[in-house]
Specification:
Number of helices: 5
Strand content: 5-15%
Structural class: alpha/beta
Strand order of the largest sheet: 3-2-1-4
Radius of gyration: 15 Å
CATH superfamily: Vaccinia Virus protein VP39
Order of helices and strands: HHEHEHEEH
Shape: globular
CATH class: Alpha Beta
CATH topology: Rossmann fold
Largest sheet: 4 strands, parallel
Length: about 140
């Protein structure tokens, strides 16, 4: 269903976000963020507040098919678009898209080697989020 928001741009809010804001603000620096986080082949990486998954896909290419990548977001609309855009290459880790909240992570302790919260600070100002994220990491954050 096509909707029009105040800007008179056709599409749902997620489609507008993905068509306008991702190319303008996120697409250019997602590969750089993947370099800074530096996930290694075979690692398990959690992307908290993954949105439509642009950074998630960058890291999947870096950890390779033996790695594990999970994109977690509270928005089912964002995750639906992430799933539609998911075009993992033969050398990429498969991506698991999960709906969930950063303050109640649905993972066991030490389930991941590293994480990123690329956009989480834009939406949540609670210092308490650090603790659930660190609990699911197998080693110290990079």
């Amino acid at each position: 269903m096509t909707e029009f928001y105040d800007w008179r741009i056709p599409g749902t809010w997620v489609e507008i976000y993905d068509a306008i804001f991702i190319p303008a603000m996120i697409a250019a620096w997602s590969p750089r963020l993947a370099e800074l986080v530096d996930p290694r082949p075979g690692e398990r990486v959690l992307d908290v507040a993954c949105g439509t998954g642009d950074w998630t896909r960058c890291v999947a290419a870096r950890v390779g098919p033996q790695g594990r990548v999970v994109g977690l977001d509270i928005s089912p609309e964002m995750l639906a678009l992430a799933r539609r855009k998911d075009g993992a290459g033969p050398g990429d880790a498969p991506i698991e898209w999960r709906e969930g909240s950063a303050d109640a992570l649905p993972f066991s302790d030490a389930a991941f080697d590293s994480d990123v919260t690329e956009a989480l600070a834009d939406y949540v100002g609670s210092d308490g989020l650090v603790y659930p994220i660190e609990a699911v990491l197998a080693r110290a954050r990079k």
